[in-house]
Structure formats: C-alpha cells, structure tokens
Amino acid sequence: MKGIDLGLDALSFASIYFLAAIGLAVTFGVMRVINMAHGEFIMMGAYTGYVVQTLIPDRTLSLIVALPAAFAVTFAAGVALERLVIRHLAKRPLETLLATFGVSIALQQIAKNVFGTQARPLTAPEWLEGAITFNDVISISTIRVAIFVLALLFLGLFLFIMKRTRLGLEVRAVTQNPGMAASMGINPDRIAMLSFGLGSGIAGIAGVAIGLFAKVTSELGQDYIVQSFMTVVVGGVGNIWGTLAGAGLIGALSKIIESLNPSNTLAAQTFMILFIIIFIQFRPRGIIPQKGRAAEA
Amino acid sequence: MLNATNLTLHYGGSQILHGIDIAAHPGQVTCVMGNNGVGKTSLLNLLAGRHPRSGGEIEFDGRKLDRLTAQAMARMGVGYVPQGRAIFPMLTVRENLETGFACLPRSERRISDEIFDSFPVLAEMADRRGGDLSGGQQQQLAIARALITRPRLLLLDEPTEGIQPNIIAQIGRVIAALRDRGDMAIILVEQFFDFAWELGDGFLVLERGRAIMQGPKSDLRREDLHARLAGHATAAE
C-alpha cells in the first residue's frame, strides 16, 4: 500500500519535472543552446497566470485564458532573447551560459520590482482542488493527475511537431547542419527563432501548471532550472524519450530519498546530485543515447 | 544562365581567388579543375552564396546579384552538392530529400519518381538514417537532394571523391542525362580527369586562385589539359 502511494507521488513528481524540462528539451536538447533563463520563463508563465486571474475572476475561464496567454508571453520573450542575445553568441556556449545567466537575474529582479517579494496566489479552479481517494493510504490530488495528463499531452505535441510537421523537419535539419540547411532553401535564422520561441512558450505553459500548486515568486524558476537540465542530460540530450526517462528517474529518486530522510531537504538534494554524477560517469550519453554511425562519429 | 566576371575572394587577410571569370549555360557542363587548395571549392562556395565575395560581378538569369545568401541562391534555382556530401546524418533518406521542399510551392512538394529512377538505392533506403549510409550512397543522396529543389544551375563539388568505380559510372550517367535534358546548367568541380573530360563542355583550370587555362572543349586538346594538371601536380610536390 505504502509502495503504491510512493509510486503515485513519484509519478506526479516525474510529470512536474518532465513538464518543466520539455521546453528545455527543445532549446537545449535539440538546438543545444544553454539557456539559464529557462527557469525565468517558467516564472513568467506563472505570473501571467496570476495576472490573468486578477482580471478574470472565474477560475476555470481564467485558466483556459492563462494557458495560451502564458505561451504567447514566453514565446515572445524567447524570440526576443534569441534575437537580441543568443543569436550573437552562436557556437559560444560559455558566453551564452553567462549572458543568459545575467538575463535570468535581471528577469528575477524585474519580477520583484513589479510583483513584490511576496508570494502571489495562483489558485486552481475548484474541480482541480480535491483528491482522488482510493483508500486511507492511497490518494492523489486531482491537480497532480491534471499535471500528469498535461505532461503526456506535451509529449505527444512535441513528437508531433518534431516528427510530422515541416517546422520539425526544418528544425532538425538546421540543428544538424545550418549551412547545408540554408543551401536547401531553409532560413536558419527564422528556424532558430521559432524553435527557441516554441521551447520558451512551452516553459510558460509549464509555469502556469507549476504555479497552481507552488507559490508564485520571483524565485520560482530557480527551483526548476537545475532539475530541468539534469532531466535532459540524464535522459540523453536530443531525445525526448530520454527526457521522459530522465524525469521518471529523477522523480522516483527524489521521492525515495525524501521518504528515507524526510526532515533534511538539503541532504536529499545532495544525494540526488551525487547519484547523478556517478550515473553520468557510467552512462555519459544518458539513459537513452542516440545511436548509429552519425551519433558515434 | 550564370555569368560571373572578375571574382575575388578573401579569407581574412589572404586572397583565395584572383579575378576569376566563369559562365554556365543550360545543357552544358562547365568543369573547374586543379589540384588541392587552388580555390575550386572556394569558388563553388562563393557561387552557392555560402561565402561573401570581395569583388566581381555575378549575373544569374540576366539579373545582377549583389550580396548572395545560401538560402536566396537555393530559392533562385541553384542546387548545391558540397564536397564531403553534408548529408543530414540523423534525418532519414526521405527527410533529407524533403529538406529541399523549402524551395518549392506547397502544391509541388513531392518526391518525383525520376529521383528514385535515377538512384534506385535511395528508394530501398528511404527510411534509413542518412548518417548510416555508405559514402557512395550518401553521394547519390546529396545529388538527389539538390535535384529535389529543381535547380536551373547545379553545383557539384567532387562527386567522385572516395567513391567506387561503378557508382562513379552511375553518377556520370545521371549528370550526362541532366545535361542532355537541356534546361539545366552544371558546374562540376572535379579532380578525376577522365570523368571530367568525358562530361565537360567547357573547362577552367585554376592554380593558386588564378585561371591558368580556360575555354570550351572544342578549343582545348585533351593532352594539353592533362599536361597542365599533371605538370603542376609534379611542380607542387
């Protein structure tokens, strides 16, 4: 019984990690841009949800409006960041890391100035408030089920866009060889901009979902950026199934460590990072590495 | 089709091309020859819009072109088959071909049977990843991929490099067939002398970024051309 409860908790942790990381799976996994401000896009999405809620009192309706609004806001922010900063630092990962880290701090400060240091509420509609109870031990809050469903939805959306659409094909071509993609008539700048916007927009939607159960503060993004990168790297960079596996592993792990040592969160995080360091030593390409002649070259 | 005059090109401070003239006409193959490092690939890169020229005039379809970009050249009808093939390794063969759809209107985005007729191996391998193909298969894919864009000028950079003889013969037949169709101009950079002589209608021999011999096939003798290339090969050594 306890095991099943633990499993459900791990699953919901995993879906949160997956949701937070999937935007990064586009910008870092596919495009290989290290964007330290990714967490702040999650935060922007959460604040967008909060602002929408102050304008539209009906919580269900405001949630329905907030999701596309958060996507639009963070898509625009992502496009702006790509055009103004990242494009000029192409192929210079260290400088990109530093520059986006700076942007991350600036965005946090802006959020503090606009919304104050106090946590803002983003309240879930009533139908998401309760819990699905099976018996005394096993119950899962509805919101966690919703987040799990949302994570699955995004997995599907990601796969559809990358494998079935023209945009996905062009994104993959540009990331593999931008010069050759241009010689095939593809505009690499436009594709870089769009896919970065897409990854950022997904982060925004994740922000709304995270805001529903976490406190919306300017530091919200900080809590997710490290886990998101870990999820993508542990899973195997450039493979969405890897990101899913990474989220599952990290979700399960954090739950197990938490259940063994419930009082000390710092120790829990330390154990987690230790485990990941050791894991990467043995599987440097992640859980699901890319295979074939091309990947091994 | 293409008429370029007095082209110059620099990489940083060093000058790579010195006043090259080159023309390409529909139904003809113009061969650019010369040893390694004389600027053949640089010339092709320039024409494909992949490296900006420092000087010279380029006229394509009667229009003067200023700054070229690779994307604009592709959309204008210049197909490019690079040295080393530059297949997208993680895309399937079919997806590699489909990248060229960017140059086509939505209604015409399909892979014509002609492509697979010319290169039957690509039909067999359609769902394999480009990076998993052998060198010869990749070369065929690179040519097919350029043809998808329906180019009016095809730039080929050493398509025989490192390829086994029967595939070279097949590539030669495809190039000849494209030339004989009469609506496509072809510029072929090649070091394999017999292959180039067989296909070429006009020749340009480069040495250290300068044209040292140039003209239509009718004005040149095979022996002279061969001697020019071979002679400089020994001189270089």
Automatic annotation (TrEMBL), chain B:
The molecular function terms of the Gene Ontology recorded here are: ATP binding; ATP hydrolysis activity; branched-chain amino acid transmembrane transporter activity
Superkingdom to which the source organism belongs: Bacteria
| PROSITE patterns reported in the protein's UniProt record | ABC_TRANSPORTER_2
GO BP annotations of the record are:
L-amino acid transport
Looking at the record, the residues that make up the ABC transporter domain are: 2-233
Q: Quote the SMART domains the UniProt record gives.
A: AAA
User: InterPro entries given for it?
Assistant: AAA+_ATPase, ABC_transporter-like_ATP-bd, ABC_transptr_urea_ATP-bd_UrtE, BCAA_Transport_ATP-bd_LivF, P-loop_NTPase
Q: Which UniProt keywords apply?
A: Amino-acid transport, ATP-binding, Nucleotide-binding, Transport
Q: Which PANTHER family match?
A: HIGH-AFFINITY BRANCHED-CHAIN AMINO ACID TRANSPORT ATP-BINDING PROTEIN, HIGH-AFFINITY BRANCHED-CHAIN AMINO ACID TRANSPORT ATP-BINDING PROTEIN LIVF
The similarity annotation says:
Belongs to the ABC transporter superfamily.
Protein name (record): Urea ABC transporter ATP-binding subunit UrtE
Q: Which gene encodes it?
A: urtE
